[in-house]
Amino acid sequence: MPAGVSVRPTDVPAEIWRKTHWGCRGGRQKRRRKETTRQLRLEVRRRHKPCLPSIVMGNVRLLSNKIDELSVLVRSQREYRECSLMCFTESWMHQNIPDDNASMEGFHTVRADRDSITSGKRKGGGLAVFVNNRWCNPAHITIKERICCPDIELCAVGLRPYYLPREFSHVILVAVYVPPSANPTAACDTIHSAIARLQTQHPSAVMVISGDFNHVTLDNTLPTFKQYVACPTRGERILDLLYANVKDAYSSSSLPTLGRSDHNLIHLTPRYVPIVRREPVTTRSIRRWSEEALAELQGCFEVTDRETLCEPHAEDINGLTECI
Fold this sequence. Notes:
Number of domains: 1
Structural class: alpha+beta
Oligomer: single chain
Strand content: 15-25%
Low-confidence stretches: none
Helix content: 25-40%
Number of strands: 12
Mean pLDDT: 86
CATH class: Alpha Beta
Largest sheet: 6 strands, mixed
CATH architecture: 4-Layer Sandwich
């Protein structure tokens, strides 16, 4: 006998017996389940459409031998899989390392390898930015500026994601690495000049400055930017910083190190609330015309002699407008 099916007793006639199935879903339960499924689908869609990009950043010290571990983290952990951007400093990559050794499925790689001629150093350095393809189309990624000198390495990447609040035109991520031997004044001046040029060209863009600053801070150089990394990145010190020109933009949390790197990774979660959600709800009252009023107005239009009104004004449009 199948489970959930009732059996007719022998003393009940077949013509009055009605077969019933136990466990049938009722209308209320079915509607509740549909609503739950719809909310889950909306949540999944919104994970890749945040108001501001979610960022994973840190100093990785040689990225090419950690790309497999990073790929596993992307497949297994939600923080990496759903983040919009990954910004890594000290990638230690050079022109002899192909892009296939520094790429992941579902992410577009932007490299800014250290130039040994302009930087004066052969080893170390290098910047790498991974952009989630579900957050931004790879065709909408442009490199705005690249600087490589003994005091700083900088790469500015322009991004136009699928979704962004109306008050912002696009996102500009500025990846920065300041070596420990750099001159703080020269490094700050270079960053200030680059940010000033970008803000002049794109005044309504979201500016995010991320990287390993070591002994340099931008509190006095860029007073309108706010620093959002609040957890230690190496030991008890905060060396990796993130600045943004948006108020109440991010909250930071620490992630384990990648491989044998001596810096913790930092996860920046957006907490910005768009202006459209912060504005109070406005109520407007609109007067609706009744059928009688519409019929009366239409009758007035039909009996109006417009030639008599327009003839005295000829080509005087101002007088005609006032008359009408």
